[in-house]
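Hello support,

Our group uses your service weekly, and this is the first time we've seen a run hang past the timeout. The protein is Reductase. I'm not sure whether the cause is the sequence or the server load. Input pasted verbatim:
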Amino acid sequence: MAIDMDAMLAKIKDRQWALADIDWNAPGAEMITEEQRPKLKAFMADLCWIENIGARGFAALAKKAPTPTIAEIYRYFHAEEQRHANAELALMKRWGMLDDGLDPEPPEPNVNIRLAMDWLDSYADDMSLSVLGTVIPMLEVALDGALLKFLLEEVDDPVCHQVFEKINNDESRHIAVDFEVLNMVGHADLRRLAIEFVATVASPGLIIGAIMYIPLLNRIRNEIVGMGLEPERLYNAVKRFQTLGERGEFTHRVPTYQVLKRHAAAVVNPGHPYHLLANSLVWVSERYPRKLLRPIPSWFNELTHEPAA
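Update from on-call engineer: The timeout came from a worker crash unrelated to the input. Re-ran successfully.
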């Protein structure tokens, strides 16, 4: 059954929350063990930046939305992803993971996330709805789905659970809209979808995006395995992309969905030669000259652990 987007927008507006709704001084921060702290700090910093990648993606999607209502929904999603990043930063502050000072800043993103940010700033606004509308739900289902559930299982701090209950509720609405729009894209004329896909595949933006995306996904996989999460948990989250896509009547007609579905099949197969390529790209990206990276975008300044946000 198709989603009533007007009703969805009303629900999104009704379910807004603020960092000020959370008691950041409540007991429980002491439940983070010293053994957890170093890896959890890096994990949370990456998660914070991944949320901002999602925010930038929704900002681009808002410009391509098929209706004014969906454009407004994407603008809310953009703000919600930024709020998620700020909440995760506030948790890091609560756990003593930010540098001391009156205005501590989050750790800088790793090189793969920096490259993803560079790609989004350079190419996202020129990508078609069929491309962005497929990549964003893939990232949300695969990364958020695995990472957030892992935190809820591994971290005992009740404030963390309260925060991620709110974030998970937001993400469930994001994913519902993502796949509804993807189904709408698939309803378009097949010839137009094919021409658009061929034109996009030949573009430097998509080629660079693929080179960026493959090591980003594998780096996250390697990090969550290092945190103690079974890789099958990420694989199950990736498989969910195909499961949700198959529920749509027309989603299968979107060429980008078919490409990412096949990519997902390689990701979830530990013995697939794909992993040799992906891990090689992770190794290469670690040696990417930092001086070639663009400055961190201005929206870096919108990150804050202050509870007013």
